[in-house]
Amino acid sequence: MTRVDIAELVGIRTRHPEAVAEAAARRRRRSRLVGESGRLMIVAADHPARGALSVGQSPLAMANRLDLLERLCLALSRPGVDGVLATADILDDLLLLGALDDKIVMGSMNRGGLAGASFELDDRFTGHRAQDLDRLGFDAGKLLLRIDYQDPGSVDTLHTTARVVDEMAERRLPVFIEPFICHRTDGRLRTDLSAEAVTRSIAIASGLAGTSAYTWLKVPVTENPDDMAAVMETSTLPAVILGGEIGRDQDGAYEKWRTALRLPTVQGLAVGRSLLYPVDGDVAGAVDTAVGLL
């Protein structure tokens, strides 16, 4: 693991908070979102800001910030990794560590729907705003769009999402929409990964805002991976496949991703916990395997 000095980070934050903006200003940026490979490999680490800290059987696996930063720095150092998706606190740390040069930096925009909360679907935009991403010289934004047909509040999320897509397009910044159809079962929110539900979510997300020119999709693999070809015919928007919680069947997850990556609209992967916290503990090996699928 790359060693991170927490005391040094805290010291900079305490005495020189302006160092974050200075690090963002001097960061070497890539000239384009998709590099020479024609594929995109993003490591996702925006889970903690929703209180989603569990990995497998460990409910607080992502709560240790030192450990998370070291895993992220290692993942970002591996060949073929294009960038990272995270909230401001994590990206600020990575800027101070100098880990974001020549990487795609994607800010997570709505984290208000806390995991397990009664207001989980009231997913307000409590993270990066379009103007923040522009000011910091970041490369893209990501938002979560969960829709429950039985929850009237979903229309507020749809409306706000559409306006945020407009704001990003005005700045010519790509925005990745992660859409889900959800249902509440025994009080818990469940995502529907059936082919029909994923198809509907893609259709809804693709039509938001006044332009889709800068919109990407971040989509899950369906319950039956064989359905992905038909599902991805729903839109011409470029897409990346998200990893999600894969349990102990790492090899099975890799095969699902490999199959999806053959589809014409799928341009890459955006994977978090399954690469940062693999079952065997080998972060570099998990990341390298995922890159190899591209």
Main beta-sheet strand count, sense and barrel state: 8 strands, parallel, barrel
Shape: globular
Q: Indicate how many domains the architecture comprises.
A: 1
Q: Structural class of the helix and strand makeup?
A: alpha/beta
At CATH's second level, what is the architecture?
Alpha-Beta Barrel
**Portion in beta strands:** 15-25%
- Side-by-side strand order of the widest sheet: 1-2-3-4-5-7-8-9
> What is the helix/strand order?
HHEHEHEHEHEEHEHEHEHH
Mean pLDDT over all positions: 94
Rg over CA atoms, rounded to whole Å, is 18 Å
CATH class: Alpha Beta
Percent in helix: 25-40%
Unreliable stretches: none
Count the DSSP helices: 11
Q: How many beta strands in the DSSP annotation? A: 9
For the record, give the distance between the C-alpha atoms at the N and C termini, rounded to a whole number.
Answer: 24 Å
CATH superfamily: Aldolase class I
Oligomer: single chain
CATH topology name, in short, is: TIM Barrel
